[in-house]
Write a structure and sequence with these properties.
globular, 7-stranded mixed beta sheet, 6-stranded mixed beta sheet, MBL fold metallo-hydrolase, hydrolase activity, RibonucZ/Hydroxyglut_hydro, Metallo-beta-lactamase, Chain A, 5 helices
């Protein structure tokens, strides 16, 4: 009896005797099954291999990025956000070991785990049980949960206050329940938005983009991108972190607005002639 982890996306499944028939995350059109076929591992095998470790890097005061090296699954990072006496793990990763637990506890532990969307659910239950921390997922994405747990709380509506200075906002788009985490006290009070890839920082880090599927290059409708930009316009943030080690370091809200305008112009055929 063990919990199997999909090697392609890094999402963990409940205890079972046999391998799952398929990964429900990867067989959906926003993700993909490895051309070589479905492959599985376990957290125990990852730990025993000695191949993996988590790098914890301070990005700014009160914010730490946690990344597994070498890359595993999709390769996203999680973030530990230190609020005023309330720490949130934003998004999640598959690998967890005793060294990571000790490091995180030295930083104050985890009071809550919040997820942007299903691609980053990974080993969220493992993290929740280790730190006795509730998980917050928007109810619109609840049916994507691969490993049910009493630690999981499905929230509804457009925002959820985790603490006085840490608020979840549902933007939809990439997934219907797609959420971002607003930290207004971050960046010396100028505000930080952590977006996973609900809003994605691109190669030119002065810009962002929006997609229904990133690996399969399926765009979002213009009206949805406009709605996302209009919603975040009202939030105070000057810096934006995505899940893939990229940052819009300053003027981030302006970057979102400009990027949404460019994206919509491209979809409507007015940005270029080709």
């Amino acid at each position: 009896m063990t919990k199997f982890i999909c090697i392609t996306c890094g999402v963990q499944y409940p205890v079972s005797v046999q391998l799952p028939e398929f990964c429900s995350i990867c067989t959906e059109e926003r993700q993909y099954v490895n051309p070589n076929g479905q492959e599985w591992t376990t957290l125990g095998d990852m730990q025993a291999s000695g191949d993996y470790e988590n790098e914890i890097v301070e990005m700014e005061k009160g914010l730490y990025r946690i990344t597994t090296v070498p890359k595993f699954g999709i390769g996203q990072s999680a973030f530990l956000v230190q609020g005023d006496g309330f720490n949130v793990l934003w998004d999640c990763i598959s690998f967890l070991d005793e060294k990571t637990k000790k490091q995180v506890r030295k930083l104050g532990g985890i009071d809550a785990i919040a997820l942007s969307h299903p691609h980053y659910y990974s080993a969220q239950v493992e993290w929740a049980e280790s730190f006795q921390a509730p998980i917050y997922i928007h109810k619109d994405d609840g049916h994507w949960v691969t490993e049910p747990s009493d630690w999981i709380n499905l929230w509804s509506g457009e925002q959820l206050e985790l603490s006085e200075n840490l608020v979840l906002h549902r933007l939809g788009g990439h997934f219907k329940g797609g959420a971002v985490l607003h930290w207004p006290e971050g960046n010396n009070g100028k505000g930080v938005l952590l977006t996973g890839d609900i809003i994605q920082v691109v190669a030119d880090t002065n810009w962002v983009s929006f997609m229904y599927s990133y690996p399969n290059l399926i765009p979002l409708p213009a009206e949805k991108v406009k709605a996302i930009a209009n919603y975040v316009k009202e939030l105070q943030f000057d810096r934006l972190y995505n899940a893939f080690q990229k940052v819009v370091a300053q003027n981030a809200n302006e970057a979102v607005q400009m990027s949404a305008g460019r994206y919509i112009s491209a979809l409507e055929g007015t940005l270029f002639d080709t």
